[in-house]
Structure formats: structure tokens, C-alpha cells
Amino acid sequence: MLGNFLIGLREGLEATLVVVILMAYLVKTGRSRLLPKLWIGIGAAVTVSIAFGALLTFGPRGLTFEAQEAIGGSLSIIAVGMVTWMVFWMARTARTLGSELHGKIDAAATGAAWGIILVGALSVGREGLETALFLWAAAQATGESTVPLLGAVLGLAVAVLLGYLLHRGVLKINLGKFFTVTGIFLILVAAGVLSYGIHDLQEAGLVPGLHSLAFDVSGAIPPDSWYGTLLKGTFNFSPATTWLEAIAWWVYVVPTLYFYLRNYRRAQAARKAAPSRPAAQSVPTDATPGVPRAVAPTS
What we know:
Layout: H1 2-28, H2 35-58, H3 65-93, H4 97-109, H5 114-142, H6 146-168, H7 175-203, E1 213-216, H8 226-235, E2 240-242, H9 243-273, H10 279-282
Antiparallel strand pairs: 1-2
């Protein structure tokens, strides 16, 4: 539940910040009349994301066990790829996110009315589809549905609340550190999802080594114990892990964490070496009323 809560919190906060920036910029530039169209796009993105999650959950039912495992394993690996891309993308573009969204709004406002709807749908839809797929893969890995879903919903609710408080200026948080720490956590969660995806493919008969175990600590960490359940629900840890699962976990975690932390250190060094600039230049969203400075992550 904790893993899915943090996934919902991070992804939900990203989407909420996008909505806050778009809304505030429309109000600031005297385009409040376009807000209903923006909300139509956002509503469409949320609807499509929920429908996608339902399709993932109920679609494979009725198929053979091998087919379900093959689909589940393949989608889990795709989810790992998407969330990895998202973590690196957010780390790279967070400081210019406001400027990019402003440019999209300006371009859409000068065209047809559906352009604003499209901006809202695409800006939020990408986060929604990624979240639906990754949450589904994480839930599959734990073998449960209700508890992971509850954790994700709570995370999304907290994200919306934080976004509202940031918008109102009531709350100030260092989003740079928040996204950095949650990015590391998501990489570890994604490694567990990848390992479980490999296990699914092994059960489907598409990948060998199902009965070749690297270790089996079921005696020390019973799957039905509270700490076994916690490790399973948070990091998708399996007490009985095959060699291929273990290799996939390490091959993913070591280079991904290395490049992620290296990029973070380089960004910190670049910010310290850069000359001082007015806040409006260094933090594009500062000039927008209703958007807190914390929207643009800082070190």
C-alpha cells in the first residue's frame, strides 16, 4: 500500500502542478473564458486514464493462464520503461516546465477552440496513462487489488490537497528534493515490477529459468508475515527469486540509479556555478499569480 500511495502522490502532484500552472496562466493573461475548455480536456484525460486502468484490470480475464502471464509480464516491462523515462524527464525539465506550458497555451489560444482542450488533455493525459499502467503493474506484482488501489487513491487525494495549498500560497515545500527522493524510490519500485514481469514471462513459458532459484528466504521472511507483506507491497520483494529475476533487478537498479544521481549532482553543480539572475528568469512560474515558487523545483 505504501508503494502505491507514493506512486499516486508523486504522479498526482505532477499532474496537479500542471493544472495549477495552466489555470493561473490563463487567468493572468486575461483568458479566463478558456478555463471551461481547459477543464473539458482535463476531464477527458482523467476519463481515458480510468478507462485504461479498467481495461488493464478486466481485459485479460477469460484468457488462458499463459496468455494472462504473457500480457502481464510484457505490460509490466513497458510500465518500467515508461516510469523510468518519466523520472528522468521530470528531473531534466522541471525548472522549465512552466515556460513550456505557457508556450503551449499561447499557441493553442491563437488557433481553434479545441486547441485548449487538446492542451489540457495531453498535459494531464500523459501522467494519467503512465500512472494507470504503473499502478496496475505494481498491483499485479503484489497479487492484490483493493489495498493497492486504496493506497493510490489516498496518494492522489493528498496530491490534489497539496496542489491546492501550494496554489493558495498556504504551503511551501522544496519540490526539487521531493521529486529527487521519490524518483529514487520509484526506481526501486520499478525494479521490483521488472523482476515480477520477468517472473510472469517465465510462468508463461516465454523465458526459461522458472525453477532455477537464486535464493529462497521464505523461512526467514514468510510471504504471509507482516514484514514479508510490507516488503512485497512496497518493493515487490519475492522471498523466492529466480536467477533471471535477480539479474534483471541488479542490471536495472545499478545503472539507473547511477545516471539518475549523476544527473542530479550535475544539475546542482550547474545551479551553484550559474550567476545570480532575477527570480522571474530563474523560476519561470514566479511571474504567474497563484503559482507558488515551489512549483519550479530547486535544489
